[in-house]
Amino acid sequence: MTRSLLTLTAISAAVAYLDPAGYRWAGIAGAAFVTLMVARELHSAFKQRSARRTLEGLRGLHPSEFETEVARWLRRDGWHVEHRGGTGDGGIDILARRRKETLAVQCKRYAESAAVSAAQVRDLYGAAVATGATAAVLVTTGRVSGPAVAWAETLPPGPALTFHDLNCLGNLAAGNTRL
Fold it and tell me: 103-115 b/e with 16+ CB inside 10 Å = b?
């Protein structure tokens, strides 16, 4: 679409400049139309990006888009990201590496009232151990259930387990904190 708009702008500018047969108005109208379309596209992109910087905006994303957004945050922080999400991902949506560290990340785009269960946390942790990750990270727009937190507190030394839920996700989305 951008290429089409740029082509139309170039043609309109040429028509306005050369003015064959007195059609300068057509070139000016075409250039104005293209300018309005580009402004509309930029406004839409800015609006989407702004929405992704809030918890409500993140909840409005499709689950795969939420995973992509979390991967973008990791890249922003210097991690090399391998996206694994989807059906049969083995409990890990994103595998992120930096130096000798490896993060196994599970993303859950939930409503505010929904909670990640202890079974889901155990699946993530087991997958992290199986892949040799140095840490397991759960990122959710919901909350983490009490039994899941209690289970995490009983873990023996091993890969770290970190939760990023609705209480801190807004700061992550805005870029104020890191994963």
Answer: bbbbbbbbeeeeb
